[in-house]
């Protein structure tokens, strides 16, 4: 099981906030690779994807960075099938993997957020107004055959409405990070922590890694 330490960052959401300001705030955070292609025989394509994460007194800030063959951002409304697009995902559990949030965004910042146990019949999606509390900042580059995109998500603690989050310092939680694109020309299912399952499934909290807030 992988482990990572998440460091605090100073961030004032008042005033002008943009992609480049947030990138600067995260510049000292470590990049982590989404290195595991858990189903290579069925889905051999492996885009290059990585992430950074930090936290403030009221939000998590996650940056994803992706190089991939195809860019797709079809869905524009909350809770649509964003996993079919060029999509990055962050799953996190604050109660020892019993329940978890799945936070999924496509490259144009359209989000889907759900909560519940690994039994999908128990899971419910947040309302659109709650999902749109997550502020997203995207940058897309096309240079010949190279297609690159980066996204920063500012996820306020209020999104985690089933957990009373205040100060995360010193807490240990569990989570995993993913890159997928179910309806791309070359579907893929990459993860930060390894998943041992015969078919693609990110909803397996037993394979979440440990996240320690330093």
CATH architecture descriptor text: Sandwich
Percent helix range:
under 10%
Radius of gyration: 16 Å
Question: How many separate structural domains?
Answer: 1
Task: Write a structural description.
- By secondary structure, the protein is mainly beta.
- 5% of the residues lie in helices and 40% in strands.
- The chain has 2 helices and 14 strands, in the order βαββββββββαβββββ.
- The chain has helices at 19-25, 128-131; strands spanning 3-8, 32-33, 36-37, 48-55, 59-67, 87-93, 100-106, 111-116, 124-125, 135-143, 146-156, 172-180, 189-191, 209-213.
- Strands 1, 2, 3, 4, 5, 6, 7, 8, 9, 10, 11, 12, 13 and 14 form a 14-stranded mixed β-sheet that branches.
- It is globular, with a radius of gyration of 16 Å.
- It starts with a strand and ends with a strand.
């Amino acid at each position: 099981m992988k482990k990572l330490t998440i460091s605090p960052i100073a961030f004032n959401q008042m005033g002008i906030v943009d992609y480049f300001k947030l990138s600067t705030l995260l510049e000292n955070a470590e990049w982590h690779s989404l290195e595991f292609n858990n189903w290579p025989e069925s889905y051999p394509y492996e885009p290059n994807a990585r992430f950074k994460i930090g936290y403030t007194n009221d939000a998590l800030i996650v940056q994803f960075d992706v190089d991939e063959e195809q860019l797709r951002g079809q869905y524009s409304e909350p809770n649509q099938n964003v996993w079919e697009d060029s999509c990055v995902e962050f799953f996190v559990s604050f109660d020892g993997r019993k329940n978890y949030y799945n936070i999924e965004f496509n490259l144009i910042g359209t989000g889907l957020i759900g909560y519940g146990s690994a039994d999908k019949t128990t899971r419910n999606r947040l309302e659109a107004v709650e999902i749109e509390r997550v502020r997203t900042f995207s940058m897309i580059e096309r240079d010949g055959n190279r297609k690159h995109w980066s996204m920063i998500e500012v996820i306020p603690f209020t999104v985690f409405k089933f957990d009373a989050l205040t100060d995360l310092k010193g807490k240990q939680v569990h989570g995993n990070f993913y890159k997928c694109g179910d309806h791309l020309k070359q579907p893929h299912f990459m993860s930060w922590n390894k998943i041992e399952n015969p078919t693609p499934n990110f909803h397996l909290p037993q394979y979440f890694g440990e996240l320690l807030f330093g």
